[in-house]
Amino acid sequence: ALQAGIVGLPNVGKSTLFNAVSNSAKAQASNYRFCTIDPNVGLVDVPDQRLKKLAELVVPDKIVPTQIEIVDIAGLVRGASKGEGLGNKFLGNIREVDAIIHVIRCFEDENILRDEGAINPVGDKEIIDTELQLKDLDSVEKKISKSEKQARTDPKIKAELEVLLRCKGHLEQGKSIRELDLSKEDKVAIADLFLLTDKPVLYVANVDEASMHTGNKYSEALKESVKQEKAEVIIMNNNIEAQIAEMENPEDKELFMEEYQMKEPALDRLIHSAYRLLNLYTYFTAGVQEVRAWTIQEGWKAPQAAGVIHTDFEKGFIKAEVIGYSDYIHYGSEASAREAGKLRIEGKEYIVKDGDVMHFRFNV
Ligand code: GDP
Q1: Same domain, 99 and 148
Q2: Domain membership of residue 259 as a residue range
Q3: Segment 19-61, tens digit of pLDDT
Q4: Is any ligand 1 atom within 6 A of the Cβ of residue 108?
Q5: Whose CA, among 9, 51, 71, 147, lies 20 to 30 Å from 318?
Q6: What is the average per-residue pLDDT within 253-277?
Q7: Does the Cβ of 237 fall within 6 Å of ligand 1?
Q8: Among 16, 239, 270, which residue has the most ligand 1 atoms within 8 Å of its CB, making it the best to mutate?
Q9: What pTM did the predictor assign?
């Protein structure tokens, strides 16, 4: 599964959020598969309304959502890029994730220690950004010094070097690579560096209870400061989320959420957004035994998508029967969609669309 890593300064509510995620995953374990990978890694179901709707039509024995991994990357502090407090280890952990969930403290609480003085969401974000940027600068500079000599004789390396120099200049201005306008070819030049500030990010403004629905001056300031990045800011209260996730009885959960005027846990929104951030597609299989969501990357062809279910499906792929999601919903069943001519037979070159309802034919 793809991974999203939770980062942020100490005492901003990261582990509270992580516990909420892993507890809600455990609560689901009664219905679905769950495995603990690591104390800091939780596997969580991705809520998807389309899956629900399909299941309402098919009424299967089992509904199986797709999952993503959430990793708690604790321990980032000012100076991490210089190796302060295990800094390099944590930065290394970030390199492995596919997307970043950056938690920012937007709540006041004098009992909760804050090394950096008064609450300052924008400043906090900058501290973390700076560490990641410095680390990236290091990677970029290393590659520059390696390729400088070759660039004199090799035009391809020369072009790469130009991209690297642009990245360097950009980072030196205190900006993240994701804000830099790079073409697809440019991206190839830096792909092997897995730059930290190139990873997609979303921000969690961890606000106090009273601001859960409205946000507050801190979350507003944060929103303003990330406008340029076009990044999403999710306003939530991690303590409340952790409490909801701990409740085993669904009725207790409902009552609790009602009390706080919540329609759904904010966690659902967060996971959904993290999934979108990863640029993932979902296709479905819909049978009476199980209706299930499967994760693929944008652009994958049918055999590769089939391989997510089983490698044999990919190896022995013959063809796929495909019904578009909205056709399926419109006609209400596979049989009716087929009658209406909406079931397509697709071959090896078919590029799977988000929401496709698929059935694979394969040789064993
Ligand atoms: P981490 O160091 O970022 O992992 O932070 P923790 O999740 O351990 O949280 C640090 C402290 O802040 C804990 O005592 C939490 O209970 C508390 N905390 C977390 N979220 C909130 C919140 O939304 N409001 C308040 N008042 N306290 C919170």
Answers
A1: no
A2: 3-115+199-277
A3: 888 777 666 544 434 445 567 888 888 888 999 999 999 999 9
A4: no
A5: 51
A6: 90
A7: yes
A8: 16
A9: 0.85
